[in-house]
Amino acid sequence: MLIFQRYFITNKVKKTMTNYKEILKSFTKEDFENKKVNLHIHTFYSDGLAKPEDIITQAKEKGYKKIAICDHNTLKAYTETDILKNDIIIPAIEFDVWCGYVFMHLLAYGIDVNNEELQSFCAKTKKETEADYIRIFSGRNIKKLIQAIHNAGGIAVLAHPANCWALSMNRFIKKLMSYGLDGLEVYYPYKRHRGIIKFRTAHHIEKLADKYNLIKTGGTDLHGKELI
């Protein structure tokens, strides 16, 4: 009887767990272009301006299917609010990290925000979430970080790849894949400084994602108050 109860409870939990990988795979290019999905949003918990609650209110009013708040190096938007009760949210974070000579941003989606291993990679001060001149000195180990993301149930995605200064993006992505990379941020507007300091086209990144069967995500990298 006890064995049956354990089996029933375990399987009930498995059925109710959200499969974020399948959710990410289900999004289309049109979802991102038609402003139905935005998986790259910052709030005042890092270097953005908006409150997480205000972003969610706007997203619901505008008819978004899913959004992700992914502040730099911090999970406080989740641990200090109750926004996870909203089905529209995919829990996420954006880490500053080096991979060899390349400074990059790594997005993590569908994570357990209370996972202690993942939290150990988070910022210890507010400056580490907002100041570029501090964030660039990140000492995070890329292999261990991706492993921690996976251990927290998450999906590791390279943010705005066209801005990475890797000499060969093909080799760089293959290297990250050997560490466990799951996806590439493909549908991204590349505005502001990222539209100027750009080494490849979004189309080139999309072709690489297709070549290696990587998950394709997108978002506006919002830092302001208005979700558009």
Condensed summary:
The protein has about 230 residues and is an alpha/beta fold. The protein is about 40% helix and about 15% strand. The protein contains 12 helices and 7 strands.
Order the strands across the largest sheet as they lie in space.
3-4-5-6-7
| Low-confidence region ranges | 1-16
**Overall helicity:** 25-40%
Strand portion? 15-25%
CATH homologous superfamily identity: Metal-dependent hydrolases
Element order: H for helix, E for strand? HHHEHEHEEHHHHEHEHHE
How much is the average pLDDT?
Answer: 89
The first-to-last residue Cα distance is: 54 Å
- Tell me, briefly, the overall form: globular
Write down the domain tally: 1
Structural class by SSE content? alpha/beta
Q: Please work out how many helical segments DSSP would assign.
A: 12
Main beta-sheet strand count, sense and barrel state: 5 strands, mixed
- The CATH architecture term is Alpha-Beta Barrel
CATH class assignment = Alpha Beta
Question: Rg from C-alpha positions?
Answer: 17 Å
Kindly describe this structure:
The protein is an alpha/beta fold and 228 residues long. The chain has one domain: Metal-dependent hydrolases (TIM Barrel, Alpha-Beta Barrel). Helices cover 39% and strands 17% of the residues. The chain has 12 helices and 7 strands. A 5-stranded mixed beta sheet has the order 3-4-5-6-7. It has a two-stranded parallel sheet with strand order 1-2. Strand 1, helix 4 and strand 2 (66-69) form a beta-alpha-beta unit. The longest helix has 15 residues, at 2-16. The radius of gyration is 17 Å and the shape is globular. The N and C termini lie far apart (54 Å). The relative contact order is 0.17. The model is unreliable at 1-16 (pLDDT under 50).
